[in-house]
Amino acid sequence: MQRIINDPDNVVDDAVRGYLRASPNLYAATDHPRVLKYAIETPAKVGVVTGGGSGHEPAFLGYVGDGLCDAVAIGEIFSSPTADAFLEAFRAADRGQGVACLYGNYAGDNMNVKMARQMAEMEGIQVKTVIARDDVASAPADQREKRRGVAGEIMMWKVGGAAAARYDDLDEVIRLAQKAVDACSSIGVGLSSCTIPANGKPNFTIEPGHMELGIGHHGEPGIEVVPLPNAEAMAQAMCDPILADQDFTGSDVAVLISGLGATPVMELNLLYSHVADRLETEGITVHRADIGNYFTSLEMMGATLTVMKLDEELKPLVDAPAQSLALTR
Amino acid sequence: MQRIINDPDNVVDDAVRGYLRASPNLYAATDHPRVLKYAIETPAKVGVVTGGGSGHEPAFLGYVGDGLCDAVAIGEIFSSPTADAFLEAFRAADRGQGVACLYGNYAGDNMNVKMARQMAEMEGIQVKTVIARDDVASAPADQREKRRGVAGEIMMWKVGGAAAARYDDLDEVIRLAQKAVDACSSIGVGLSSCTIPANGKPNFTIEPGHMELGIGHHGEPGIEVVPLPNAEAMAQAMCDPILADQDFTGSDVAVLISGLGATPVMELNLLYSHVADRLETEGITVHRADIGNYFTSLEMMGATLTVMKLDEELKPLVDAPAQSLALTR
């Protein structure tokens, strides 16, 4: 395990300390060691909170900033933050206008957000939630409630954060964040595994010369394991289930390709050119493409593709200014 | 070899096509397939050009943009761009005020820039150069002319680009870019190797449980191979030769830690906290820290540390606005 760490059991606390030291203009500590808030005091707007396991950097904490999230709850690697952490993030983000908690559909996060929300409401903090379910590989379209959240969460934070920044009220922020992530269909391909520091061994196995289509962000099983295709065929294999999930024809879309960690960014751009060709062939217009390491899984190789259907309501929110470690516009 | 590519011999051309499709607001094609220029026509200012081998993304092309470079020459993976490519980049960047070519000290780049510069001058384009030599591990301080350029190049582009953006003349852009990179001392640690697509096999070997201190960006041998230390000891091992290279005591500095590709960003921030502790102990004040994947080597694990001594002339140029794929301020 070739890692830059001290005690494997303290990786997250040590990393949080590093983020605080490196980016004091972005992050401020809170009363909870696993909660960071935006360093700049925000005005009386709806607070936007996210949270999730570590190991997905720059998600989740990289999306704290101007026009995005106001506070983040940080879990152990690939584990949900605690209910206490979500509660403290709600407190840190609340400006008396309520809090939008925008997170992904994982059992631990659901449980802890629910508990934190109950505790917050006893303190007089109103919390509403949007749960991302954009991973088309994790359940069929008619069982969307079972789908996991993957990189479509970024578009949920972007749109919800932009709505809050223009002083939309809580119901409107929630409506738009929900609309944003409902407009997203995502799928991942895994080309290699990763090693959680506290385990010291690869999390799962992908044989060389193969890829797992539909893999989850923690190595959850996908649709099938297939021989590793070339980039052009990989793009088709990723576009097929996405284009079957929603009718994008004639629409403008935002496209996000995120590496899973160790895949070089040049390969993500190479993959994108084939995705762009395919979308063009289908009569779909790319309004904006974000290609890079936006939501990773430690040092996995592979990528996720997210296609988001845009309308005139979503477009200005997707394009609105933002300033953070992960995303700047 | 778990790569997202088509024909391994066409990786660079395929990737360039991807960058052009993904970021039409940043990149425009030129008459040379391996040269990209900034998509927005710049005014009559000094042109800033860089170039180098592929596989270091976001370097070099990620530093084309506002307040940075105007054109980039793109080589094969880990190989210099051709003289023709550098020449076309000079043409693309020239606005009649001359061109500053800011690149790293590698034999192929030196030869091809020299040839391109002679050809450009026959066309009436004045080109002056700064050659980055910031890697303290590659030669002793009294043989600085032998040192390789590594991530200190980013500060050279940042300062040179900012000087050109405020309409400094060519001699002044060159002076400031030279001053910027002379103010940088850098060192890398390699924790694992990488595989060039056209070769299909790892470039070199680092045994698990070991690291190579002072490794170059293409796996060039470092100072020594040592058992992999914890992050705190690794930070000391990187700071020692940097602090011995220049007298930083009492100075303000900019710090840049770049991952080499596959090392998670959380570990880079974790490493930074120990670097920050050490610098504080030495009476050095961190003015700014950039932590992320700024200059990689495909999917190598490891990191580079650059410490740059600032004065009142360099500080505003390091902080000046910039807009690009790799760096935004």
TrEMBL record, chains A, B:
GO cellular component terms, A-Z: cytosol
Keyword Kinase: yes
GO molecular function list: glycerone kinase activity
Keywords: Kinase, Transferase
InterPro entries found in the cross-reference section: DhaK_dom (IPR004006), Dihydroxyacetone_Kinase (IPR050861)
Superkingdom of this protein's organism: Bacteria
Positions of the DhaK domain: 7-327
Pfam annotation, one family: Dak1
Entry keyword Transmembrane helix: no
Biological process according to GO: glycerol catabolic process
Annotated protein name in UniProt: Dihydroxyacetone kinase DhaK subunit
